[in-house]
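Cross-posting from the chemistry board since nobody answered there.

I work mostly on the small-molecule side, so proteins are not my area. We synthesized guanosine-5'-diphosphate and want a rough idea of how it might sit in this target. Sequence and SMILES are below. Is it possible to get a predicted 3D structure of the two together?
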Amino acid sequence: MSSPSPKRRPKGGKRVRVPFRPNRAVRRRKTDWTQQARDAEDHEFDADRSESVIGKGALSRRRTITIHDDASRLPKGLRKGIVVAMRGLYADVDDGERVWPCTVRRVLRTRLIEERQPVIVGDRVWFRVESEAEGVVQEGTIEAVEERQGQLRRRVGRRVHTVVANVDQVIIVSSADQPPPKPRLIDRYIVAAHAGEITPLICMNKSDLDDGGFAKEVLDRYGRLDYKTLYTSALTGEGVEALRDVLEDKASVIAGQSGVGKSSLLNVVQPGLRLKTGGIIEQTGKGKHTTATATLIRLEIGGYVVDTPGVRAYDLSTVGRDELEALFVEFVDHVPDCKFPDCTHRHESGCAVKEAIERGEIHPERYESYVRLFEEPTEPEWLSKSGE
Ligand SMILES: Nc1nc2c(ncn2[C@@H]2O[C@H](COP(=O)(O)OP(=O)(O)O)[C@@H](O)[C@H]2O)c(=O)[nH]1
Ligand SMILES: [Mg+2]
Ligand SMILES: [Zn+2]
């Protein structure tokens, strides 16, 4: 894991109030993609009906955690690491040299008692080594957990589960063919990533199958919007070096519909991984247990990839209608020029967004994505009632 951006992190070892929204407060009705996604043209959203994901605002309360940011201020002997897996009461903490099975210090557990998941995969933690003697089981105790940033959350039944904390980026993978690119799905992922404060990158795989160059054309659309793009082939190796570069020292989620080559790409990035490939349908729906576990796979080049099956757009976040226009980056400059301040950029006259389409400044398919997302139904009532 790279050192996270300093601007968002408090200094020194101190207790910080972490703002959370009220846990049981009734949420404003929001567009929720979950229900829609199940029925939408995007068949890859094949989730079990009991599972969905909420936006980051839906849980919450304030909680106090201890953050140690500066190694020089730490109590002596503490080490920094990242939780790569949870096994019952144990957290496996990787300090860059090895993995330490750690327990969570009781006082920390108590302090975080309201937080159902005091320690989760992806957490940056400070731990004390209990024994470094040779030949005995070396164990540690987690003393502090840093504030979480980008989070991958999933709703399982009525519970919300943070699957992974501190995700830096999501690599949105499509393929040139088998299956062909679906711009609307790419847009759905991009918007969700922005809403979840995770940086999206766009990867077009199977470049070897891009005979007419159509996939490259789709990809370049996103490049022009200043998204980082990757044009790869796990078969020929094209673009794999560039993929390695973006993965290095980051915690990345690899998302995209089944069959686009996510596992194949990772196997080429790091041959030792031996991830299963070839149309194996990942168990994301019926096998509920699979959604609860995630692990971080450490990359030899530095960084981690999140190994959790079938990451869907709504795992990253859900988005309210009113937020949507701001998450289409090329709309933002035009919105203030709309005739009506509450313009939704659909049927209104004097809409600067639509005028920008006419002038060729906004791609019609991006606009189509916006309208589709905007018009998706709001979430069912029960979703806004259930707590964490
Ligand atoms: N032609 C071609 N086939 C690929 C490429 N990457 C993956 N595949 C094939 O696409 C299928 C699905 O790949 P897989 O990695 O399992 O996709 P995942 O479901 O996204 O993890 C497999 O048969 C792969 O061999 C590529 O770059 N070019
Ligand atoms: Mg796979
Ligand atoms: Zn407008």
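Reply from a structural biologist on the board:
Welcome over. Reading the output above for you: The pocket of guanosine-5'-diphosphate (ligand 1) is lined by residues 205-206, 208-209, 233-235, 258-264, 277-279 (CB under 6 Å). Residues 1-69, 280-292, 380-388 have pLDDT under 50 and may be disordered. Happy to explain the token format if needed.
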